[in-house]
Amino acid sequence: MFIRTAGERDLEAIKALLAETWHATYDAIYGRKRVNEITAEWHSMAALRTRLTHPHSEFLVADDGKAIAGMAFAASVDEGRVVWLRQLYVLPAQQRRGIGAMLLDEVSESFPEASLIRLEVEAENLNAIGFYRAQGFIVSDAAETTQDEVSVVVMEKALA
């Protein structure tokens, strides 16, 4: 497995990965219908395509040469001092193999001027919260509700 920058040719596979991962993670929380709505909007080809050219960002995939097993998207803010990890997903069948940690390491290394990495995670997604804790993240703001009435936990980690 290697980590590389995502390209146009990866978008269909990323879209499929996001749909599979979202259903496995969020159907029990939001219901299948709502997950279909979210993935249709948030993970459309147009939405994914904008990530390819988003300024001050990294759009990465974990690739074994045959298939994409994971993806991450992050962008810097505050003049490059803070990195917001917007997405990090690994196919359910590929989880617990170090792929998420590899993606996270590459995101961190992609922003050498940053001193902090921050993310939001669904408050009920205990597996993700556990993963991020194991990677050294701490909860900075407990459950807050977004405009979509989703409860999220804000987590962060200082970067060396």
From TrEMBL:
The protein's superkingdom reads Bacteria
UniProt entry keywords in alphabetical sequence: Acyltransferase, Ribonucleoprotein, Ribosomal protein, Transferase
Q: What's the protein called, per UniProt?
A: Ribosomal protein S18 acetylase RimI-like enzyme
GO cellular component, as recorded: ribosome
Q: Which Pfam families match?
A: Acetyltransf_10
Organism of derivation: Aquamicrobium lusatiense
Tell me which InterPro entries the record gives.
Acyl_CoA_acyltransferase, Bact_Acetyltransf, GNAT_dom
GO function term, MF aspect, one: acyltransferase activity, transferring groups other than amino-acyl groups
N-acetyltransferase domain segment(s): 1-160
For the keyword Transferase, the answer is: yes
